[in-house]
Design goal:
The protein is α/β, with parallel strands linked by helices. Helices cover 37% and strands 26% of the residues. Bound molecules: adenosine-5'-triphosphate (ATP). The site of adenosine-5'-triphosphate has 12 residues, from strand 2 and helix 1. This is Urea ABC transporter ATP-binding protein UrtD.
Length: 246
């Protein structure tokens, strides 16, 4: 699998505290990866480094086939490279319909090439239908986003990110606050999305991670403690000790 993102030897210090400590993680071009770890392990900071919100003191963050350094780019330039981020709390336009939300996301081209090849409105309508189908909200297209359930709002927001056609989607705790049925739908959605792009999911819920059935990276004290299948990492004695607080 070709590498899309290469984080190597990255460290971040906040007021003398080393939140990220010589961290190296590599993500493939069409890969689903779960990142787990106890509170304060550095999961959010890891995502902040990729999106340019936090700048590391050392290390490299290389992106794409030409190994562009993301550390030289601004947050908006990084977003335009095709990196989308879904925060925990859904932020959809509640007063607008699901269709309007998706249309707005499609109208917001992320790069110069999107402007050059700007799609006609007929194509936009077809694309909205495609995304609605992908996120399971076809029936809900005319509804106001504010009327959706918590889970549906999360899917809509994922759909709005997919509308930007990201190559890497970072998703923070997608299962939080969802019903079991909503979790199942979310699993399917993320697995499908990762067939054509990289998806990195930060998640606390082990059952959810198990269903994602993907490679897992365990972070602890800002570094990788273990990596592999969920079964592999949960058998690792260091991981057991960290989770049991020994
Ligand atoms: N801006 C900041 N200033 C000072 N310390 C920070 C800052 N951001 C994060 N930290 C510290 O860095 C460490 C890593 O934090 P981070 O939020 O990345 O962990 P996390 O794995 O996402 O935790 P959680 O699961 O609780 O969200 C923590 O000890 C946190 O207190």
């Amino acid at each position: 699998m070709s590498t899309l993102l290469e984080v190597s030897g990255v460290s971040v210090t906040f007021d003398g505290f080393r939140a990220i400590n010589n961290l190296s993680i590599s993500i493939g071009a069409a890969e689903l990866r779960a990142v787990i770890g106890p509170n304060g392990a550095g999961k959010t900071t890891f995502m902040d480094i990729i999106t340019g919100k936090t700048r590391p003191d050392e290390g490299r963050v290389l992106w794409g086939p030409r190994s562009i350094s993301l550390l030289d780019l601004s947050e908006s330039q990084i977003a335009r490279q095709g990196i989308g981020r879904k925060f925990q709390k859904p932020t959809v336009f509640e007063a607008q319909s699901v269709r309007e939300n998706l249309a707005m996301a499609l109208k917001n081209p992320r790069g110069p090439f999107d402007v050059l090849f700007y799609r006609k409105s007929r194509d936009t309508a077809a694309r909205i239908d495609e995304i609605a189908d992908e996120i399971g909200l076809t029936e809900d297209l005319p509804r106001r986003a504010g009327e959706l359930s918590h889970g549906q709002k999360q899917w809509l927001e994922i759909g709005m990110l997919l509308a930007q056609d990201p190559q890497l989607l970072l998703v923070d705790e997608p299962a939080a606050g969802m019903t079991p049925a909503e979790r199942e739908h979310t699993t399917a959605l993320l697995v499908r999305a990762a067939q054509t792009r990289a998806v990195v999911v930060v998640e606390h819920d082990m059952e959810f991670v198990r269903r994602l059935n993907c490679k897992v990276t365990v972070l602890h004290e800002g570094a990788v403690l273990a990596e592999g299948s969920l079964d592999h990492v949960t058998k690792n004695q260091d991981v057991i000790d960290v989770y049991l607080g020994r």
